[in-house]
Amino acid sequence: MNLPNKLTISRFILTIAFLGVMFSQVRGHQTIALILFIAGGISDFLDGYIARRDKLITNFGILMDPLADKIMVCSAFIAFVGLRLMPAWMVVIIVARELAITGLRLLAVSKQVVLAAEGYGKHKTISQIVAIISILVGISYKQWDPLGTSIFGWQVFGAPWLYWFTQIAIWAAVGLTFISGWLYLWRNRKLYLDDM
Fold this sequence. Notes:
mainly alpha; Four Helix Bundle (Hemerythrin (Met), subunit A); two-stranded antiparallel sheet; 8 helices
């Protein structure tokens, strides 16, 4: 097994560890969860970079890399609903989009069609990761006193600036998720309309 594929598998393990820590009562569990999620994000960047640089692209990687990404991101958002950090309806949009696009890609594969990633999809992923990290920083920075409060706790309009940044990040992630999913389904509608 090559290094990019090992990094992809590590993301599944990091996701399980992230979820376990998020719902634990271990001291500093929010900070540990943040570190685990960032490690997962770094592994996502590295496996793609190394696979392209060293020409180590495999069928396993083509299938499992995006699946690992979706599981990591959707797991975080679902955990946020369970912890009342985010409304369920927003997470339903995010998870539904990921399932719909995965289904469309499977349909395309069955017809020997390759659907390339689009720019909106990449922006969507970045916005989701920013939103998740922002939420995780928001629930953990007070554990880093005095450094955490001095960086993330200064007030803007009666709340820490990070609160406002997080709200914008969440709405941007949900908006880009919805728009990118709708555009992807619309542009590739011939794939599924032909079977109706």
